[in-house]
Each structure stands twice: as C-alpha cells, then as structure tokens.
C-alpha cells in the first residue's frame, strides 16, 4: 500500500498512558487520545491491562471512528491503559502498523505506544532477525518492543535501561505490562512527554493539552532519559540513559503541538505569537490587513499584526468539520486542494493588500492554492510570511516532510518561490528570530530541518518505508 504525502509537515504521533484503580482507564485513554488527535490521524488504539492480561483495540481511522461504546466496554476492568494516535513515520499506513502493539518474548508480554523515529531501526531489526526474532509489523516501534522483551533483566525498568543506549533517535514510549505502566523518553528529549495526576492515578501524555480536559493536573515533564513507572511497588523514577545534551524539536512550537500545550515551561500559543512579532520585524510589508492560515498560524498572524500595527482580520474560514477521510475527493476536487477546507471571505479581502501568515512551506503546492484563493476573492496584493525558517532538510526524528528533493525551499530562491506561488512577496523568519521568540536556551533544541545540523548522525537517504524493503 502506498502512502499519500500531503503538502503539510505530517505530525508525529500522540502517546498516552494512565494508571488508576478508581477510573475507567479505557474511557480516560479515549478522551486523552481525543485531545491528541492533531498529532496523528491515520490510526488509533488503546491497550488495557488488569494485572493478568493485556487487551488491545487498534484500527485505522480517527479516534472517534476507531472506538464504539462497545469497544470501550470490552476494554473495561483494567487499571492500566495506554493509547496511541498515529501518523506513520516509519512503516506504511496500514492496520498491522496501528498501535499500541503487543510484543511477546522471553521476558513476557508488553503493549507499547511510540512517538518518534529511530535512525538505526533497520540495523537493530537485522540483528534481532539473526537471533531468530520474527516481526509482525514494519515499524521501528516493534523493534523497540522486541529488544525490550528479549533483553535479560530482573525488572522491566532494568531491561529498558539496558536497551536505551542502543536506540538512536527519537522515542517517547508508553508501555503497559500486565501490572505496570511505564513512560520513557529518549535522552535528547526530541518529543515532549508530560506527567499528570488524576485523583489517585497517574497520567502521561505527549502534550499537556490532554490533561486539562480529563481533570488531571500537570505535574512536570518526563525528563529526557527518564524511565517513569507505576506498578505494585508504587511510583518509581530512574535515569535509563543520562542526558548529556538536549535536542527538543523546535518545530513542535511552530506547528506540531496544540497552542494550549506547555512545553519546557513555554505556552505554545505565546511562542507562536512571539514568532509572529519577530517575523513582522524581520519581514515587514506595506499592507492593509494581516490574516493567518487557520488554525496553526493564527497566533503568529496576531503577533505580526500587533508588532506591525496592521489590523488583523479573519479572511479565511476553515471548515472545522472536515477531518481526514479515506474517501478521496474526485480528481477535479483534488486539484482544488485546500479549497475543501478553507473558504476566503471576498467581502473582507476585495481590493486589499493582504499579508498572509502561514506556519511552514513544504512543497509549496498549498501556498499556490492559497494565493490563488485570495486573488480570486479579490485581494489586490498577497504577501506571504512564514513564521519559521525555510525547510531545507528532511526530519529523521518523527516529522514527515518527504525527501530533500521534495522541499521547494531547497530548490528555489525566495523570489523564485514567490513567483511560483503567484505572491507579490515571500518572507521567512530566520533561525535566530525563531529561537529568540521561543526564549529558551538555543543549544537545547533541534533545528536540523532548517540548518542541516542533525543532533545525531543520520543516514541521509533514510526512507520511512526502509523496513518494508
Ligand atoms: S529536524 Fe526539525 S522537525 Fe525534526 S526534530 Fe529537528 S526541529 Fe523537529
């Protein structure tokens, strides 16, 4: 099965976990995943454990499509649940790759949910296959699971700590054993993972936006290199692999995370507003109004408007009820692309010089449609402003934008790109501007897709389907 690539950076995945003896953990996991839906819309799943056995329900589709009331009732009765929403960054999009996955081995059985991407999964898989381990999926997540269940050790924490130094790349894991919930974050801390308290129980989630709606209280983030566990012996935390440097994903702040999440103490909404303000200083434009591409670029557009003194308007309305569907629009409709989701307001735009703020450009086809839409609605001038630096290099740590030869900024100058998309001008935020707006220590963040300086060495031709070939 081939995988469709859109013109947007594809979100990584969302992971969730809960340990509670007083809540319906499957139902809590369902609503936790609901809040993490933006991180992956291809498949969803929940695994529960009741001290004796682990059950999994995982399917293709959105969270609300994957679970019926009956499915949740079937998962009832446990005190541990983990969940996953997936966009495939390794392995194609098909049901056998939906997570959580169940993995069996000499150490026992675990269910595992993974956010991130390993850069050495194919070597690790080869080594395991030589030892006679068989695989059911094509994901790097199963490789992690297989390593853990085949590792000697007294406890799950010990096995995981022995496996961690062999894993290169990005991983946030939630793991359910029969009677323990574990949460693990790679020592570079690429992807976020946070810890919350829900009554007598513990919750872990990719983003803090998943905690509030459940009534859970944010406690802290799971630290890079940490193994957090809740089981019969209570709560334990250990350093599985010491973190000698950090590489949190800067692009989480730009696009991936929800604006109401807090990462490293910074509210994503405020970070985006600050990026918009920095963008206005670096890339000014003579215009009558600033609009943002909903939803991710709205806070940055507001920041741009504040800083520039140009009024902010809503010139594009997004249909909130168009979700990812497996039913493809017919060819003509597909050519219209974004028009299914975005509707311009000619009454607001006609005759105006418009600054349109967007979060990023991958192949540029979205912006070609966007500029055409705005012109058709009567905009007199269209100035495209992007609140992150140009995407010049692929990401190997869980955000899929395709290969370097698919990235328009790697092939054209900004002037050529503006002409290609039919815009009057195009301007990006610089790396320095983006990091200044984040206000966090620059050395602690990965910016490799903009700079080409990867925090771990990567094989430059890595493909997300490598494990299938
Ligand atoms: S390469 Fe870019 S998208 Fe990937 S982890 Fe680094 S900053 Fe994030």
Give a summary of the structure in a few sentences:
The chain is an alpha+beta fold and 469 residues long. It folds into 2 domains: 231 residues, Aminohydrolase, N-terminal nucleophile (Ntn) domain (Glutamine Phosphoribosylpyrophosphate, subunit 1, domain 1); 200 residues, Rossmann fold. The strands form 6 sheets. It has a 7-stranded antiparallel sheet with strand order 3-2-4-1-10-9-11.
> Structural class of the secondary structure composition?
alpha+beta
Strand order of the largest sheet: 3-2-4-1-10-9-11
User: How many independent structural domains?
Assistant: 2
Rounded mean pLDDT score: 91
Number of strands: 23
| Biggest sheet overview | 7 strands, antiparallel
The CATH homologous superfamily of the largest domain is called Aminohydrolase, N-terminal nucleophile (Ntn) domain
Ligands: iron/sulfur cluster
What are the segments in which pLDDT stays under 50 over at least 5 consecutive residues? 1-5
**DSSP strand (E) fraction?**
15-25%
How is the secondary structure organized here?
Blueprint: E1 13-19, H1 25-35, E2 43-49, E3 54-60, H2 63-66, H3 69-75, E4 80-86, E5 101-105, E6 108-115, H4 121-130, H5 140-149, H6 156-163, E7 172-176, E8 181-185, E9 194-198, E10 201-205, E11 217-221, E12 226-231, E13 234-239, E14 248-249, H7 250-256, E15 262-263, E16 266-267, H8 268-282, E17 289-292, H9 298-308, E18 316-318, H10 331-336, E19 342-344, H11 346-349, E20 353-358, H12 365-376, E21 381-386, H13 414-421, E22 425-428, H14 431-438, E23 445-446, H15 448-451
Parallel strand pairs: 14-23, 17-20, 20-21, 21-22
Antiparallel strand pairs: 1-4, 1-10, 2-3, 2-4, 5-6, 6-7, 7-8, 8-12, 9-10, 9-11, 12-13, 15-16, 18-19
The structure holds iron/sulfur cluster.
Iron/sulfur cluster (SF4) is lined by residues 190, 249-251, 395, 397, 399, 446-449.
């Amino acid at each position: 099965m081939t995988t469709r690539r859109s013109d947007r950076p594809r979100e990584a995945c969302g992971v969730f976990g809960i340990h509670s003896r007083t809540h319906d953990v499957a139902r809590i996991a369902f609503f936790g995943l609901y809040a993490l839906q933006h991180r992956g819309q291809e498949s969803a799943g929940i695994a529960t454990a009741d001290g004796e056995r682990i059950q999994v329900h995982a399917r293709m589709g959105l969270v609300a499509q994957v679970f019926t009331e009956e499915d949740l009732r079937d998962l009832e009765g446990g005190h541990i649940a983990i969940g996953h929403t997936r966009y495939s960054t390794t392995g194609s999009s098909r049901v056998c790759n939906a997570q959580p996955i169940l993995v069996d081995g000499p150490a026992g059985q675990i269910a595992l949910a993974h956010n991130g991407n390993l850069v050495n999964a194919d070597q690790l898989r080869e080594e395991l296959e030589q030892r006679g381990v068989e695989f059911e999926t094509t994901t790097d997540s199963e490789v992690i699971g297989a390593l853990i269940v085949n590792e000697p050790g007294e406890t799950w924490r010990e096995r995981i700590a022995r496996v961690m130094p062999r894993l290169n790349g990005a991983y946030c894991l939630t793991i359910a054993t029969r009677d323990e919930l574990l949460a693990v974050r790679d020592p570079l801390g690429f992807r976020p993972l946070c810890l919350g308290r829900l009554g007598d129980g513990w919750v872990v989630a990719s983003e803090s936006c998943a905690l509030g709606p459940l009534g859970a209280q944010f406690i802290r983030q799971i630290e890079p290199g940490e193994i957090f566990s809740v089981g019969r012996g209570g709560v334990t935390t250990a350093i599985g692999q010491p973190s000698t440097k950090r590489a949190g994903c800067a692009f989480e702040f730009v696009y991936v995370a929800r604006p109401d999440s807090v990462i490293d103490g910074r509210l994503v909404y405020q970070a985006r507003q600050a990026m918009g303000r920095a963008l206005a200083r670096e890339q000014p434009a003579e215009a009558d109004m600033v609009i943002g591409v909903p939803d991710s670029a709205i806070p940055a557009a507001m920041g741009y408007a504040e800083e520039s003194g140009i009024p902010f308007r809503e010139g594009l309305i997004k249909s909130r009820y168009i979700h990812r569907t497996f039913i493809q629009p017919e060819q003509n409709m597909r050519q219209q692309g974004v028009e299914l989701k975005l509707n311009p307001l000619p009454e607001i735009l006609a005759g105006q010089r418009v600054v349109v703020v967007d979060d990023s450009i991958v192949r540029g086809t979205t912006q070609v449609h966007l500029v055409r839409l705005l012109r058709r609605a009567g905009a007199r001038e269209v100035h495209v402003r992007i609140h992150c630096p140009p995407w010049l290099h692929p990401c190997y740590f869980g955000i899929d934008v395709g290969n370097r030869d698919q990235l328009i900024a790697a092939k054209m100058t900004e002037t050529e790109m503006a002409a290609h998309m039919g815009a009057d001008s195009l301007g990006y935020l610089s790396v320095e501007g983006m990091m200044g707006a984040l206000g966090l220590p620059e050395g602690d963040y990965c910016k490799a897709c903009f700079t080409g300086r990867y925090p771990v060495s990567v094989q430059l031709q890595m493909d997300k389907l490598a494990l299938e070939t």
